[in-house]
């Protein structure tokens, strides 16, 4: 066997080992429906994200439960926008957006924006300092400037630097679990 053939064999062997390592890390194919059902076993809060349409000043909103804190200093939060959504282009291009954490009485508001991103008709809202639609009466609101965007599979992860926030300490949260809205029940302990 020549040195070139031996070198090729070693490179092929290394490539096969790398492929086997990748396969071991990724595991078997995941059934999307079962995976979604498993994710639905994690109770989350419900948020309404608002921004302005790409290239315009028309308000756009979307209901999501993929909200999370990232950092306290600096104050950063994130949420994920499905690339399959017709509203994805607006949010992935937005320089500013607001995250509204919905209270237990706002399930209809959440449903409204799952179907239509322009569902602001008849809704009481006002534009914030950056022109972003702001809705009052929510559990908490975070006005953000886009800090970073990351591609994450079929979603875009949007990280926001919090510019301002507001809190309603008297209200209780709207929850989402197993494909349904719910609320917290106080348990005596």
UniProtKB/TrEMBL annotation:
The keyword Oxidoreductase applies. Residues 39-183 form the Flavin reductase like domain. Pfam families: Flavin_Reduct. It comes from the Bacteria. One of its GO terms (molecular function) is FMN binding. The keyword Oxidoreductase applies. SMART domains: Flavin_Reduct. InterPro entries: Flavin_Rdtase-like_dom, NADH-dep_flavin_reductase, Split_barrel_FMN-bd. Keywords: Oxidoreductase. Belongs to the non-flavoprotein flavin reductase family. This is Flavin reductase. It comes from Paenirhodobacter populi.
């Amino acid at each position: 066997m020549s040195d070139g053939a031996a070198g090729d064999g070693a490179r092929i062997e290394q490539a096969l080992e790398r492929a086997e390592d990748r396969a071991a890390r990724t595991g078997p194919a995941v059934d999307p429906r079962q995976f979604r059902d498993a994710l639905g076993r994690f109770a989350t809060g419900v948020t309404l994200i608002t921004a302005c349409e790409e290239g315009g000043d028309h308000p756009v909103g979307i209901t999501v439960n993929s909200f999370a804190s990232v950092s306290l200093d600096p104050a950063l939060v994130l949420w994920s926008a499905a690339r399959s959504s017709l509203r994805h282009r607006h949010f992935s291009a937005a320089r500013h957006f607001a995250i509204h954490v919905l209270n237990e009485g706002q399930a209809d508001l959440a449903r409204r924006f799952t179907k239509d991103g322009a569902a602001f008709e008849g809704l009481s809202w006002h534009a914030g300092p950056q022109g972003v639609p702001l809705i009052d009466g929510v559990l908490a609101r975070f006005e953000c400037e886009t800090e970073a965007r990351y591609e994450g599979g079929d979603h875009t992860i949007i990280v926001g630097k919090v510019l301002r926030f507001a809190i309603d300490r008297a209200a209780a949260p709207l929850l989402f679990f197993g494909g349904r809205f719910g609320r917290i029940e106080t348990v005596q302990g």
